[in-house]
Amino acid sequence: MSMTDIAPAPSATASAEGQPTPPPWLEEMPPRQIVAELDRYIVGQESAKKAVAIAVRNRWRRAQAPDDIRDEITPYNIIMIGPTGVGKTEVARRLARLAGAPFLKVEASKFTEVGYVGRDAESMVRDLVDAAINMVRTEREDEVFPQAEQRADERLLDLLLPPEPAPVPAAAPVAHGAATGESVFVVGSSGQAKSERAATAEEERRTRSREKLRKMLADGRLDDREVEIEVTPQTFPMMEFMQPPQGMEGADINFTEMLQEMLPKRKKRRSVKVPEARRVLVDEELKKLVDMDDVVNESLDRVENHGIIFIDEIDKIAGERSTAGPDVSREGVQRDLLPIVEGSTIQTRYGYVRSDHILFIAAGAFHVSKPSDLIPELQGRFPIRVELSPLTEQDFVRIMTEPENALTKQYQALVAAEGVELEFTAEGIAEVSRVAFQANDRMENIGARRLHTVMAALMEDTLFDLPGMDEKRIVFDAEAVRSRLAKIINDDDLRRYIL
């Protein structure tokens, strides 16, 4: 991204008064800090975190490079290979929350070859542009939000205290001008006459009333009052039938928006309470204050230079070469995906977007197929290969305790909603991990997702009986876990279906 012709990154912009300073872009973090952020939610897989951190940081490094070499620096796309449930998708989820750049996660199995029923591969770039538009518009709205609130409050005060109609001017003696609020001519020191309008008692009373209402509005004492506002319907029901068919979303003309511009703006009056009216008025003021042309330009620039697309389940489009007829959901998708990853120009409803510098991260379990089953050209476009290791029993223990969104913490929050304290001892967590690991070993290995099934079976009775329980503290130790899961563990047929 050219640093001379675009706005600075969000972390460099001055935050609006009273607004918290936005966090830095993910690209601006050192690789070690990116790994530390991922460590908060993902256990192990250091090689994958390291590769992703380097690739993301390289986007920022490219932006600092001289103009003559910047366009030559292409992203080093990554393919993550590993069994299901080891953290491939979780890496994408956490990157999406950390990134200040446009990010999109798609599943390769959703696409078909161009010309067949289904979504074409180019739609992922169009979806990325939509995500960028929403992101930049939100940033712009945050910047002008205090101003929009101020404008909305003024409009709301006009509704609560409507201005009186202007009086019809009547002839009156000049001597009584000050008393009646009419113009009074005053001769200044320069000898030139100036017209001043004396404030009437009625105007002063209205000003005091308006300020009193303003304070009551700020304190929330008017929340139960209803006001009548004029609103413009956002969409027309008939336009839902005019959306382009799936696979043809790339039309340069947005027919829905075009028809909305052509049709008259119908307004309708609604009686709503003050908080709802304030929300509607703030939304209207935000639309007036945000320049959508600037939003679109900035969004397209971010997509082209900082966009990240995570292609999950890429192994689902890999397989042996088809011999009987075209394979529109496998090799055909690979052929369509290839020019996008290589770099091409894609048509969107906001303009043309080049994908040359979009970072692509692919992931797949490759249980049935292997990476070499992808067409050679596509393999060459993912030069960085990272293999994620299967999870061990000790990894399960760490997953249950270390991440900020650990399953034990999630269940503790759910139980706390009923006013009950839930505790898992170290031995209890170890027993849950042992059961999950053995279930993976005896049946299909689904990685950390097995912990969800084991915990659901463990907590089922507790969550069902919780509202009527007298106990205010529940402790799960190793013995409690074994007794709850004994029936399932000992019954091979039942285990196969439940765990």
Description:
Helix 5 packs across helix 9, helix 5 packs antiparallel against helix 10 and helix 13 packs across helix 15 (426-442). 47% of the residues lie in helices and 12% in strands. It has helices at 31-39, 46-64, 67-70, 88-98, 123-160, 177-180, 201-219, 255-262, 274-289, 292-306, 331-342, 376-380, 393-401, 407-416, 426-442, 449-465, 478-490, 492-498; strands spanning 78-81, 103-107, 183-187, 193-197, 226-231, 268-273, 308-312, 345-348, 351-354, 359-364, 384-387, 421-424, 473-476. Among the domains are: 22-138 and 299-387, Rossmann fold (3-Layer(aba) Sandwich); 393-498, Helicase, Ruva Protein, domain 3 (Orthogonal Bundle), CATH 1.10.8. The strands form 5 sheets. The protein has a 5-stranded parallel sheet, sandwiched between helices. With 499 residues, it is α/β, with parallel strands linked by helices. The chain has 18 helices and 13 strands. The model is unreliable at 1-23, 171-181, 236-243 and 246-253 (pLDDT under 50).
Low confidence ranges: 1-23, 171-181, 236-243, 246-253
What fold name goes in the CATH topology slot of the domain at 22-138 and 299-387? Rossmann fold
| Corresponding CATH architecture of the domain at 22-138 and 299-387 | 3-Layer(aba) Sandwich
Most strands sheet: 5 strands, parallel
Number of DSSP strands? 13
Radius of gyration using CA atoms only: 31 Å
| Top CATH class of the domain at 22-138 and 299-387 | Alpha Beta
Strand content: 5-15%
Percent helix, as a range, is 40-55%
Number of H- or I-type helical stretches: 18
> Mean pLDDT across all residues, rounded?
79
* Structural class assignment: alpha/beta
Q: Given the C-alpha coordinates, what overall shape results?
A: globular
At the fourth level of CATH, the homologous superfamily of the domain at 22-138 and 299-387 is P-loop containing nucleotide triphosphate hydrolases
